[in-house]
């Protein structure tokens, strides 16, 4: 509980970040920010907050969205290089397709930071993200606690997994964190998987598509649950896939129970589903904190520093410095990893305390305060 309170206090301080970071920046500096798409709510929030934070600190910002098109993202980054940016902050669409353009960036003396998603086989200086494996662990632990699996005895539960985009390096961490945590219960027979889909490849969802998740889960329900078999848990790696799975459960599930449905990101529609009981929980990652950590890191680099663990003391959010976990094929990338946390109907007010959400006029649903 003390850790949660400390985290909330840190989140509440995020709006002070611009003033504390101005000293790091110089009006002459120009940063290029490349986001994957506007079709997922979270990237609109990330892009908006990054731009706002960097501009408040005196940077010139070039922000692009590449419509989930890897070729377009390469072109966008090439244009930023030509425009003379000093730093690139990139959330990759396909983590394996940027090595050539980022080699050009390195040749031009441009520092690249992988934002949220690791970029493989490319010259990147740092990685800023959340503890991605822990995201899956939190989803699995929620299931363990909600169903009291430690004391299940002979009782069994049915679970199905929906994972994310194979082109996103984070997707495997999310899935593995959840599956590894639940594996003892799967091995013991407490958790059963009627579809037999136990690998990431079998349950992956390209581009984190809600429509694809909906179609895939409709097929799963028709094939394995049409005879009245009870589904107890739909473990979804993020909110966009959870939205599709929840829709499939509402329209196609024959059982009378409401399965546990997990998610990640805190998308507005999913928070409404939590209030309505259609989704059970989400793992929240505060994008304002992620943007703030990125700003402090970039400012330190441009001030000639070689940031390490000591930089964590300058963040207004809890983060760990990791030099072991994330190898992108060219070596381990120094990483700053923020802390995610679980949200369900019982603690939605924690989101309000971040300053990024507020209740609507009727105090019924959460709305975002971010641009």
Condensed summary:
The chain is α/β, with parallel strands linked by helices and 371 residues long.
CATH architecture grouping of the largest domain: 3-Layer(aba) Sandwich
Strand neighbour order, sheet with most strands: 2-1-3-4-5-12-11
Cα end-to-end separation:
31 Å
Question: Rg from C-alpha positions?
Answer: 21 Å
**What's the helical proportion of residues?**
40-55%
* Integer tally of domains: 2
Q: Which geometry do the CA atoms define?
A: globular
Our estimate of the beta-strand percent is: 15-25%
What string gives the helices and strands in order? HHEHEHEHEEHEHEHHEHEHEHEEEHEE
Mean pLDDT: 92
The CATH topology assignment of the largest domain is Rossmann fold
Kindly report the name of the CATH homologous superfamily of the largest domain. Response regulator
Described by strand count, sense and barrel closure, the largest sheet is:
7 strands, mixed
Please mark out the parts with pLDDT under 50 across 5 or more consecutive residues, or reply none: 1-26
Instruction: Quickly name the level 1 CATH class of the largest domain.
Output: Alpha Beta
Please identify the structural class as seen in this structure.
Answer: alpha/beta
């Amino acid at each position: 509980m003390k850790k949660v309170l400390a985290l909330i206090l840190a989140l509440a301080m995020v709006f002070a970040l611009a003033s504390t970071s101005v000293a790091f920046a110089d009006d002459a500096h120009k940063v290029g920010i490349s986001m994957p798409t506007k079709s997922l709510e979270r990237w609109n929030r990330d892009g908006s907050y990054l731009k706002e934070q960097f501009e408040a600190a005196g940077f010139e910002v070039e922000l692009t969205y590449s419509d989930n098109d890897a070729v377009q993202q390469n072109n966008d980054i090439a244009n930023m290089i030509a425009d003379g940016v000093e730093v690139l902050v990139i959330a990759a669409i396909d983590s394996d397709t940027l090595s050539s353009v980022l080699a050009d960036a390195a040749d031009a003396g441009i520092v690249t930071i992988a934002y949220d998603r690791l970029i493989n086989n490319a010259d990147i200086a740092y990685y800023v993200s959340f503890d991605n494996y822990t995201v899956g662990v939190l989803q699995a632990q929620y299931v363990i606690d909600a169903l009291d699996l430690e004391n299940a005895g002979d009782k069994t539960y049915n679970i199905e997994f929906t994972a994310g985009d194979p082109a996103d390096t984070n997707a495997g961490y999310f899935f593995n964190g959840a599956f590894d945590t639940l594996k003892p219960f799967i091995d013991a027979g407490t958790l059963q998987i009627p579809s037999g889909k136990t690998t990431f490849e079998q349950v992956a969802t390209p581009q984190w598509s809600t429509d694809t998740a909906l179609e895939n889960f409709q097929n799963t329900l028709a094939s394995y649950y049409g005879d009245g078999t009870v589904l107890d848990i739909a473990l979804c790696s993020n909110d966009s896939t959870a939205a599709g799975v929840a829709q499939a459960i509402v329209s196609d599930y024959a059982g009378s129970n409401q399965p546990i449905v997990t998610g990640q990101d805190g998308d507005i529609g999913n928070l409404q589903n939590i209030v309505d009981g259609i989704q059970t929980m989400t793992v929240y990652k505060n994008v304002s904190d992620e943007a703030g950590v990125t700003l402090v890191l970039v400012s330190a680099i441009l001030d000639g520093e070689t940031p390490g663990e000591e930089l964590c003391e300058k963040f207004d959010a809890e983060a760990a410095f990791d030099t072991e976990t994330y190898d992108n094929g060219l070596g381990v990338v120094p990483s700053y990893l923020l802390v995610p946390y679980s949200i369900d109907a019982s603690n939605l007010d924690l989101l309000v305390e971040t300053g990024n959400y507020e209740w609507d006029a009727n105090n019924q649903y959460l709305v975002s305060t971010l641009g």
